[in-house]
């Protein structure tokens, strides 16, 4: 018998059987069904708690690179020695490399599958009113197409060979390259090989890339100046993992990256009047920095109150008009990073400030910013300050910042992140008088984007999630934390996109897709991968779990997977295991469906206990009848003074004019006594207490119109002016996810006057108008406007336009003639 029970338990818990469970009668839907059949099975590499397993492994890739920038030709030439260590239990006959610059080839999968009318570059279709919508092409897109036609982009691979000199067979497949090894690489072995390559650098503002150059034609230097941002600039090892093997998914532009950690030694040869910002630590400062710059940098290591200039605005302005007399080679080293990026320009202003982390592995982190004069006072005031603020906040929710530098670089890329370095776009505007100003929106943009991109150094540069597949894993957590950091910076600034109330338009739109959609397939990447996950975490933290347990769980996730590669399953399981909360209902609803939140408070019924005592209950009913609205006809008769017969003729009255249906009779009294005698002891005790307390009983009825189950948060307003907040867990929907009722009991004298559902708009409830009982009048406004003028040619007064144009031209001609006669008498 015990064996049968165990077998049955095993079958019920198995994913295969769980998938076969069906509701065949009625319309019951289990919103709290476990996710076991969806999540990956635990194993020796990833255990059931969401932590790395005792046999967890990941690969390692080390790079030694020498790169040379041809500034005038806007071309990069480089060579690298790559050492790849196979820490997996598998034998690998080949290795795969990422060639991301190939994304800009005209025959790339990204270009060939780029649909017309896609986001960002082309104007929307315009209806003619007859059902047709002509296509429109923007000048920006025309410029991009012309640049692709006029230039050859993508990698030129000139050498792939073992360090011993033996050539390696290799096959290029779009943005990937397979390198066939002469001998399969067994577990625990390493292989070192050389790659030489070059590529033409794209103009970022034209091609819309994540890196490239920006040209400044108006600088004092003849021919202007360029600012270069280098990312995805070298062939990088494709990730190989326990759950997917080789992550050889084509780079299409949106889905970002997942990479292997390793050590880097990188030398960049650039014009000798350039300043370089880079991943890592400068290894040869005496070769590339002046004595003054080195002295300033040393002073900045002890300056924590504000940044100090390493290259001043005046020095940078002087550099703008200079011409290089040769080259310099800047050398940077970095340990345990998953990528490497850098920037270079003679235009850079450079400031630095120390951020102290007592007791951390990196006790001093250099927060630094690099920007051209176009960044102006906006960058001087806010960039490095935002870098420091980000580290202070994020470290509380994850781990101490693990690297020696954190940098913010201004350039044409609006916002992008790499280990120790970020690219951020906002700038000032040049005015006619030569001054530079910035709008409030640019200020908010800069502070927000620096916080967001520096935050990415934690997620995913250290917590190494797979951005190619699951954008939300890093963007969602990062958007959540950047909003936390933003409100700690200044709660009065209108930060957007990350709170539950911000996501309502997207969550109710027909364009919504599940968060768990693969990155390249998401139409609206912002609300889907950034905003909706962030809103979910705010709800978990503030509404479902509570701040203390949520923060503990998030820190546990970050620390478990620091310098490792987590999956969605690992995140879900860690958050549940560390918080002590079953959240399968939450993950299923928020991440796997497109349901939205719309809970309606439909009705409230007030109940009062019947005492069974006729002296009490019948008097109550008489009063209830007296409180009913007066009959309309009776009221109108009274108002018109119509006489009442029984008052005019007293002789027609009898017994029933003095006694009504609520008069207590001996029979009523006897029935009451019999009722009390029939109660058992505990029943009489309960009944007597209820009669004595005379409490107020309310039944609140709710309906779930949006489909997404959520906790029910209520503000209860009472007649005496007091107010209470009540939180009902989401599990109230476990047996009926469409409608539920809840009994609330309040002591005598505590009567409800109003109930408000989700009073602080914390659950992303789409319709707040059904959240009040009694219903509230909906506020709107009266807008004064005039009917718009006709825009079609048939509605224009062409005759008047032509006549007025001809008249104006004649007047201008006559005026010019008069001026000519006066000057030539």
From TrEMBL:
One of the GO biological process terms: peptide catabolic process
InterPro entries referenced in this protein's UniProt entry, alphabetically: Peptidase_M1_aminopeptidases, Peptidase_M1_dom, Peptidase_M4/M1_CTD_sf
Pfam families, alphabetized: Peptidase_M1 (PF01433)
Keyword terms, alphabetized: Aminopeptidase, Hydrolase, Protease, Signal
Compositionally skewed regions (Acidic residues) per UniProt: 812-825
Superkingdom: Bacteria
GO cellular component: cytoplasm; extracellular space; membrane
CDD domains documented for this protein: M1_APN_like
Stretch forming the signal peptide: 1-18
Region annotation Disordered: where it falls in the sequence: 785-825
GO molecular function: metalloaminopeptidase activity; peptide binding; zinc ion binding
Domain Peptidase M1 membrane alanine aminopeptidase per the UniProt entry, residue ranges: 387-590
PANTHER family: PROTEASE M1 ZINC METALLOPROTEASE, PUROMYCIN-SENSITIVE AMINOPEPTIDASE-RELATED
The protein's name in its UniProt record: Aminopeptidase
Organism of provenance: Erythrobacter longus
């Amino acid at each position: 018998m015990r064996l049968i029970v165990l077998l049955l338990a095993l079958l019920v818990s198995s994913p295969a059987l769980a998938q076969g469970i069906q509701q065949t009668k009625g319309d019951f839907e289990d919103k709290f069904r476990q996710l076991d059949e969806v999540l990956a099975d635990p194993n020796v590499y990833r255990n059931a708690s969401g932590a790395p397993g005792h046999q967890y492994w990941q690969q390692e890739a080390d790079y030694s690179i020498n790169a040379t920038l041809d500034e005038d030709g806007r071309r990069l030439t480089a060579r690298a020695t790559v050492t790849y260590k196979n820490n997996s239990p598998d034998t690998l006959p080949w290795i795969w490399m990422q060639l991301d610059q190939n994304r800009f080839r005209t025959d790339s999968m990204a270009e060939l599958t780029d649909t017309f009318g896609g986001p960002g570059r082309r104007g929307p279709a315009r209806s003619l009113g007859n059902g047709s919508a002509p296509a429109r092409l923007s000048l920006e897109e025309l410029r991009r197409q012309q640049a692709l036609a006029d230039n050859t982009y993508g990698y030129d691979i000139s050498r792939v060979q073992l360090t011993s000199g033996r050539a390696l067979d290799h096959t290029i497949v779009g943005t990937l390259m397979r390198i066939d090894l002469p001998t399969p690489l067994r577990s625990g072995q390493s292989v070192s090989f050389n790659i030489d390559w070059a590529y033409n650098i794209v103009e970022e503002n034209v091609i819309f890339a994540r890196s490239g150059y920006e040209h400044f034609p108006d600088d004092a230097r003849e021919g202007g100046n360029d600012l270069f941002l280098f990312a995805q600039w070298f062939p990088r090892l494709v990730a190989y993992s326990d759950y997917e093997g080789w992550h050889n998914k084509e780079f299409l532009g949106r889905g970002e990256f997942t990479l292997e950690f390793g050590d880097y030694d990188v030398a960049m040869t650039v014009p000798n009047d350039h300043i370089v910002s880079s991943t890592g630590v400068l290894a040869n400062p005496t070769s590339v920095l002046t004595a003054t710059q080195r002295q300033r940098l040393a002073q900045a290591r002890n300056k924590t109150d504000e940044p100090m200039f390493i290259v001043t605005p005046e020095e940078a302005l002087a550099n703008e008009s200079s011409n290089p007399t040769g080259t310099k080679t800047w050398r940077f080293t970095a340990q345990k990073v998953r990528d490497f990026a850098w920037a270079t320009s003679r235009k850079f202003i450079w400031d630095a400030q120390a951020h102290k982390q007592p007791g951390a592995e990196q006790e001093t982190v250099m927060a630094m910013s690099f920007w051209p004069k176009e960044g102006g006072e906006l960058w001087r005031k806010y960039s490095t300050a935002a870098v420091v603020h980000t580290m202070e906040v994020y470290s509380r929710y994850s781990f101490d910042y693990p690297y020696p530098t954190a940098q913010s670089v201004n350039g044409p890329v609006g916002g992008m992140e790499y280990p120790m370095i970020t690219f951020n776009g906002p700038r000032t505007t040049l005015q006619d008088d030569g001054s530079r100003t910035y709008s409030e929106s640019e200020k908010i943009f800069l502070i927000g984007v620096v916080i967001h991109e520096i935050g990415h150094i934690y997620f995913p540069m250290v917590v190494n999630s797979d951005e190619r597949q699951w954008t939300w894993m890093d963007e969602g957590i990062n958007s959540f934390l950047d909003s936390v950091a933003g409100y700690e910076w200044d709660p009065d600034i209108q930060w957007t996109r990350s709170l539950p109330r911000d996501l309502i338009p997207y969550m109710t739109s027909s364009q919504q897709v599940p968060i768990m959609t693969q990155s390249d397939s998401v139409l609206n990447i912002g609300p889907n991968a950034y905003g909706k996950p962030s809103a979910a975490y705010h709800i978990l933290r503030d509404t479902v779990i509570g701040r203390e347990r949520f923060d503990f769980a998030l820190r546990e996730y970050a620390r478990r997977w620091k310098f490792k590669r987590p999956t969605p399953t690992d995140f879900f399981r860690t958050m549940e295991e560390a918080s002590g909360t079953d959240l399968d209902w939450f993950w299923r609803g928020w991440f796997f469906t497109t349901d939205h939140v719309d809970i309606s408070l439909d009705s409230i019924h007030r109940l009062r206990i019947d005492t069974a005592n006729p002296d009490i209950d019948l008097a109550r009913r008489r009063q209830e009848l007296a409180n009913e609205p007066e009959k309309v006809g009776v009221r109108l008769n009274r108002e018109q003074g119509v006489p009442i017969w029984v008052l005019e003729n007293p002789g027609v009255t009898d017994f029933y004019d003095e006694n009504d249906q609520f008069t207590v009779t001996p029979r009523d009294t006897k029935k009451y006594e019999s009722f009390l005698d029939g109660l058992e002891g505990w029943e009489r005790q309960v009944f007597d207490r209820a009669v004595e307390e005379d409490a107020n009983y309310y039944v609140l009825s709710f309906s779930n119109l949006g489909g997404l189950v959520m906790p029910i948060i209520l503000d209860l307003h009472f007649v005496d002016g007091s107010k209470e907040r009540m939180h009902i867990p989401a599990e109230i929907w476990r047996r009926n996810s469409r409608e539920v009722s809840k009994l609330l009991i309040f002591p005598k004298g505590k009567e409800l006057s109003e109930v408000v559902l989700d009073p602080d708009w914390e659950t992303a409830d789409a319709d707040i108008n059904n959240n009040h009982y009694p219903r509230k009048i909906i506020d709107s406004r009266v807008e004064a406007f005039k009917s718009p003028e006709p825009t079609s040619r048939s509605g224009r007064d062409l005759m008047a336009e032509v006549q007025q144009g001809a008249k104006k031209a004649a007047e201008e001609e006559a005026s010019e003639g008069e001026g000519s006669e006066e000057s030539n008498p």
